[in-house]
Write a structure and sequence with these properties.
Radius of gyration: 18 Å
Number of domains: 1
Distance between the termini: 36 Å
Oligomer: single chain
Number of helices: 7
Strand content: under 5%
Shape: globular
Order of helices and strands: HHHHHHH
């Protein structure tokens, strides 16, 4: 197994670590730990793709596991944000619907012996999702520490909520563009 694939597996392994940290909402040390773990996992996403392309180590396993790792990590984070009232369930439904639809297109394409690559909007969506999560958890850690002197922890929740709706809009747009660009997969399906 090459290094990029090991980094992808490390990202998957960090999901339960993130979950443990994020399951202690409003506790500054745990929110900081969640932010740091998520940031580290997000960096592995950038690094594994960069190394795989640079060293010509793109594998079928990587093509499958990398997007799976991203979806596991970001969906988990948004679920925890939802439990803290910083993300609407509607946002999560939009994210999941887009991911299921894209996975369906990829399955149809694979049945037709085609590979459907990610587009620019999908990459923008992933980066925005990760940045939103990082900003939220670092903000929660900072505000939880300051909360002991009277500063409200609701500012990060509000910022997270607004960013989540921005993520929903970009996610919806990227999904529509992806489906439109690959509509021939539906025409060729038997």
């Amino acid at each position: 197994m090459n290094l990029p694939n090991k980094l992808t597996l490390a990202r998957i392994a960090l999901v339960p670590v993130f979950m443990f940290c994020a399951s202690h909402p409003f506790h500054p040390a745990w929110m900081l730990a969640a932010a740091l773990v998520f940031t580290l996992a997000s960096l592995t996403d950038f690094l594994d793709g960069y190394l795989a392309r640079r060293w010509n180590m793109v594998t079928d396993f990587g093509k499958f596991a990398d997007p799976l790792a991203d979806k596991l990590l970001t969906t988990t984070a948004f679920l925890y944000m939802m439990t803290m009232n910083a993300c609407s369930p509607v946002v999560l439904v939009i994210i999941l619907t887009r991911e299921f639809a894209v996975s369906g297109v990829r399955m149809l394409a694979a049945a037709q012996n085609r590979v459907v690559a990610a587009n620019l909007w999908g990459k923008v969506k992933t980066v925005l999702q990760m940045l939103t999560i990082i900003v939220f958890y670092f903000g929660m850690a900072l505000e939880a520490w300051q909360g002991s002197v009277g500063v409200s922890v609701y500012l990060s929740q509000i910022a997270g909520y607004v960013l989540c709706w921005l993520v929903a809009a970009v996610t919806l747009l990227s999904g529509v563009i992806y489906l439109w660009q690959n509509r021939d997969c539906f025409m060729r399906a038997k």
